[in-house]
Amino acid sequence: MKFETSLQFAKKLDRQDPLRSFPSKFHLPRIKGKAAIYFAGNSLGLLPKTTKKFVEEELNDWARLGVEGHFHAKRPWLHYHKFSKKALSRIVGAKTTEVVAMNQLTVNLHLMMVSFYRPTKTRFKILTEAGAFSSDQYA
Hints:
Blueprint: H1 7-16, E1 26-27, E2 30-31, E3 34-35, E4 47-48, H2 51-65, H3 69-72, H4 80-83, H5 85-92, H6 105-116, H7 134-138
Antiparallel strand pairs: 1-4, 2-3
């Protein structure tokens, strides 16, 4: 395919894009009455339209089952970490036995520091990007 810089070519590529249906799967914020163009990838991202249904299912299981939801919920909580192994392994190019979903970024940074950070007299500083989440910066 020869790349072109025309609007017509861009629209043609948009029509051929296998991901073209994805915007309809998310709630897009509106600014001045128009759907926003959303490029914020280092945060929560856009809310998937199916999220409310899934959260309500979990809350209903919690109300109905209490602690027994660990074993008898629609998606038993005890095994949550197993549900994402296949997808995570494909994303990072690893075997399913080599990945686990756990915690969140700040907790994982803290665990990494506790496990691996060994300051010396000459190597004792840690650099972080400006504007990082405060909890990540202070971990």
